[in-house]
Design a protein that fits this description.
single chain, Trna Endonuclease, Chain: A, domain 1, three-stranded antiparallel beta sheet, 11 helices
Length: 354
């Protein structure tokens, strides 16, 4: 069973929350996207962002230059000047820094616009917009992008909008599938990449709860093993247990494990069961975390809704356990209300008699 199609606006909100850049993302009106295709969403966001940067002023940085000047500036290369007999002609070899918009971050943005220009899938109404945005970045180089291009990105705390746009650029780059023979680019639907979407879904939930839930603290915890060993006294050989999301409230701790599958249950010979590995992993977290606390530790497995809405509650070895889905195809306000309702129920879940 395939995932229901996530509306383009909802996917955009998922990404903005995942990157913890909701305010920056709200500067773009995605309702103006002329289609439901991801390439058009990317193009609209990036072009709107470039226009916003142009009004605010593009990032500038210093670029090293060397030149022979009659009016010296910067550091004079005395040895180089003498070797070339420049002083005889009233000139000097100088090395200096010059302020420029040709920074690495701006180059990445322009290079990404160049990728979009090569897409045959781009909506007709956006093609000229992308080309115009590309040409507007005059004086900025357009290098061939690589994975290392994004590793070299450096940003300051006051450049959050740049961080948002560069996140968009990286997503575009990682979704691009160049066709060297045809000289064009097409884009894969990264929503169908369960591994990529699992990271987005987990980070979305973490930042959504941190922003929208009241009276809670959200962390990612490392849980120690309730174990002892003579051969491995430091328990170094045991795998680490790192929670996706730990929610602390007056009611205690709730450990949330977020999963993104094309199916939230397994079906075998007409028997439907939850994913056993997910349950075993969460129970390992709960039982080992409980040894460090006096209060009962609760747990929740949460999936995107596929073919059914799940709302099951159990008590396993004394731990209240919730298994739930969230329907990402609904109206965003409904998604928000559903998530907050599921969270509140899981936080307040108590021990029931067997």
């Amino acid at each position: 069973m395939e995932q229901p199609r996530i509306p383009i606006a909802n996917l955009y909100y998922l990404l903005c929350y995942s990157w913890d850049q909701l305010e920056q993302g709200e500067l773009v009106d995605v309702t103006k996207c002329p289609s439901t295709e991801l390439v058009d969403l990317f193009a609209l966001v990036l072009c709107t962002g470039v226009n916003h940067l142009a009004r605010r002023g593009l990032e500038q940085g210093y670029e090293a230059h060397s030149d022979e000047l009659s009016s010296p500036r910067g550091r004079i290369d005395a040895l180089g000047s003498a070797r070339r007999f420049l002083t005889v002609h009233g000139r000097a070899a100088c090395q200096f820094d010059e302020l420029t918009v040709n920074t690495h971050n701006n180059q990445v943005i322009k290079g990404t616009l160049g990728l979009l220009c090569q897409s045959r899938e781009l909506h007709t109404s956006l093609r000229s917009t992308v080309t115009k945005a590309y040409k507007s970045l005059s004086g900025i180089a357009s290098p061939v992008l690589t994975a290392q291009s994004f590793g070299k990105v450096q940003l300051h705390s006051n450049t959050r909008f740049y961080r948002f746009l560069l996140n968009v650029c990286e997503l575009i780059f990682r979704s691009a599938l160049p066709n060297a023979s045809a000289g064009s680019v097409r884009f894969r639907d990264f929503v169908r990449d369960e591994r990529a979407m699992a990271r987005v879904f987990e980070n979305f939930l973490f930042n959504f709860i941190k922003r929208e839930a009241r009276g809670v603290t959200v962390k990612r915890d490392r849980i120690g093993w309730n174990a002892a060993s003579e051969s491995d006294p430091g328990l170094l050989m045991l795998p680490s247990m790192n929670t996706d999301i730990s929610v602390y409230s007056p009611a205690g701790r709730l450990i949330i494990d977020a999963k993104y599958y094309s199916s939230s249950v397994n079906t075998f010979r007409d028997s439907t069961k939850y994913h056993s590995a997910n349950l075993y992993q969460l129970m390992s977290y709960l039982t080992n975390a409980q040894s460090q606390e006096t209060e009962i530790v609760r747990g929740m497995l949460i999936y995107p809704r596929v073919d059914r809405t799940l709302r099951d509650s159990y008590v396993v070895q004394g731990h209240p356990l919730t298994i739930a889905t969230v329907d990402l195809s609904r109206n965003w306000l409904e998604i928000s209300a559903e998530l907050l309702g599921v969270l509140e129920a899981a936080i307040s879940a108590g021990t029931v008699s067997a």
